[in-house]
């Protein structure tokens, strides 16, 4: 694979022409699911057609090289080895598999972030109940991001995991993942990063970040099909992990009383795949790499910053994003309302979503919020769409 190290600015017209959905909707719901570009749609449809024609297992055999290529593409994107990638059905399965592979014992402390995702936190509570581990959120600093000084002060011999969300589901915050990684490294503590909202909208380099485990999904900023995800497992941590369960892909039954784990991160996979969707994921990663993650990040960050600035100037609108560094997720309320605003935008063909308190309970409670409107923007969103969105919000703010 020969890829350019720097990428030119995004050609928005081409990005839009590649994306059939752009013709029908203003899609600001990329934090929910991005619009698939044509190469992804083609990869999925072609494989389903092939399965229908020759049989599922036979189609898999024919696609073998392209299936192997998916691991290489993801490894390239994250700057890791091919063997350090496991493909799974979503980010939740990736994260849970990592979390329940760690040898946590009663009294072990898990340090997490205020903006932690509900599904992760539910498992901390579950592990607290089942295993007696203690979960403690690290407070935010005055900008709203995880306070790395506080993290350092909280560390002692009982901390057995640092697990944080990089970009939360409910705001534009980008937590200081690399700074947290340095602290985790220095203290030799496993570090699990939920990169579900950051992968695909910015450059993610696991060496720079220093995480041992990273979970992500295919359908959000990567613009892959639904029902795809992956897990990165640093090879140096592999021997410390025990998969929570096995099957005939993750392990091989070699004697009546003995099994061997699959090599590398493949021990965290399971047998059955939606191969069409996986091929779509591979096409999505290649497509993102062709644009360049730096170029995507530049565009998305600037576009979101423009929306925030304009929203901020509208009477009655409160922008709710926090943190020193902010990304493509823009959150706000209009005169304290979110549901009504999202519904009104939907009727005008503008897709946004509503983040409710229970998705990130610690953060939302701390900020006294029940919900926020979430506009997750991408590099196929153009200036005219920003204007349409802002015009709609100006009108709603005056009416409501
Ligand atoms: C969406 C999301 C997840 C879950 O991803 P799935 O692919 O739906 O399992 C995890 N973490 C964060 C921060 C998310 O936004």
Question: Can you put this structure into words, describing what you see?
Answer:
- By secondary structure, the protein is an alpha/beta fold.
- It has two domains: 12-36 and 292-399, Aspartate Aminotransferase, domain 1 (Alpha-Beta Complex), CATH 3.90.1150; 40-290, Aspartate Aminotransferase, domain 2, CATH 3.40.640.10.
- It is 40% helix and 17% strand.
- The protein is built from 14 helices and 15 strands.
- The strands form four sheets. A seven-stranded mixed beta sheet has the order 2-8-7-6-5-3-4, sandwiched between helices. It has a four-stranded antiparallel beta sheet with strand order 11-12-15-14. A two-stranded parallel ribbon has the order 1-13.
- Helix 8 (177-186) links the parallel strand 5 and strand 6 (191-194).
- Helix 2 (38-54) runs antiparallel to helix 10 (275-291) and helix 11 runs parallel beside helix 14 (383-399).
- It is globular and about 70 Å long.
- Pyridoxal-5'-phosphate is lined by residues 90-92, 117, 119, 165, 168-169, 194, 196-197, 217, 229.
